[in-house]
Design goal:
This protein has 261 residues and is of the alpha/beta class. The protein contains eight helices and ten strands. The strands form two sheets. Strands 3-2-4-1-5 form a five-stranded parallel beta sheet, sandwiched between helices. Strands 6-7-10-8-9 form a five-stranded mixed beta sheet, sandwiched between helices. Helix 6 links the parallel strand 6 and strand 7. Helix 7 packs antiparallel against helix 8. This is Cobalt-precorrin-4 C(11)-methyltransferase. Belongs to the precorrin methyltransferase family.
Length: 261
């Protein structure tokens, strides 16, 4: 039997970046609970006509659970929207524990996270052959802590690509950690604000300069920093290199000559 509760990734803001499954579930929901400041109206407008729409911003965990439970007990279908992807910086685990305690089944539907959306909008991949093959998704410690072993300086020391969430209000602190970890001040930092929204802003800066850009633009929330050491590296992957053999193609004898794409 299909669960009556679905935690659904709402993506970064563009309703066309919802999965087909997410759109289908919204269209049959009797109750939609969403984080108001993080969910454009265009997304909640995809709910079934007559659906009850609740903004969770002013609600406690217990209040959202009560609304879900009451709807399910009345035979209804619930979509709990989560900004971006439910696996990142969401509250699915604590909500799910309450459902499980009452024997209410649920499912989770992934969504496009801001790091992926920003990389696509900027047309800059996070990874680059021979430069970085790792993308770390993290955040700066603030009102809510992070484990000491995962502090930004320690992670930045790997010199991999970084997606720094939930830190736009402290850009100078982010810069300090990146520089202390040994990042070149000229390393590219992409600043992505409200990716997928009509008011989207995308900027390319550097470790040295991005805090001033953030302050000048007033980007205090819903802003992601992508630290991109592989940007403009110009390296080429092996997969389509004619000199590189793999299971679907042998190395070519003419690999030393320029060949058309």
């Amino acid at each position: 039997m299909t669960p009556r509760v679905h935690f659904v990734g709402a993506g970064p803001g563009d309703p066309e970046l919802l999965t087909l499954k997410a759109a289908r579930l919204l269209a049959r929901a009797d109750l939609v609970i969403h984080p108001g400041s993080l969910t454009p109206k265009a997304v909640t407008d995809m709910a079934a006509p007559g659906a009850r729409i609740l903004d969770s911003a002013s609600m406690t965990l217990e209040e959202t659970h009560a609304a879900i439970r009451d709807t399910v007990l009345a035979g209804g279908f619930v979509v709990r929207l989560q900004a971006g992807d439910p696996a990142l910086y969401g509250t699915v685990a604590e909500q799910a524990r309450l459902l499980e305690a009452e024997g209410i089944d649920y499912a989770v539907v992934p969504g496009v996270t801001a790091a992926s959306a920003a990389s696509a909008a900027l047309r800059i991949p996070a990874t680059a052959p021979e430069v970085t093959q790792t993308l770390v998704l993290t955040r700066l410690a603030g009102r809510t802590p992070v484990p000491e072993a995962e502090n930004l300086r320690a992670l930045a020391a790997h010199k991999s690509a970084l997606a720094v969430y939930l830190s736009a209000h402290m850009p100078e602190a982010v810069r300090e950690e990146l520089l202390a970890a040994g990042h070149d001040p000229a390393t590219t930092v992409a600043v992505a604000h409200r990716v997928g929204w009509p008011e989207q802003e995308l900027h390319l800066s550097t470790v040295r300069d991005f805090p001033e850009l953030v302050r000048a633009r007033g980007l205090t929330s819903q802003t992601l920093f992508l630290v991109l050491p592989g940007h403009q590296a110009g390296t080429r992957s092996k997969l389509y290199d004619p000199a590189f053999a793999h299971g679907a193609r042998p190395a070519r004898e003419d690999s030393g000559r320029n060949t058309p794409c």
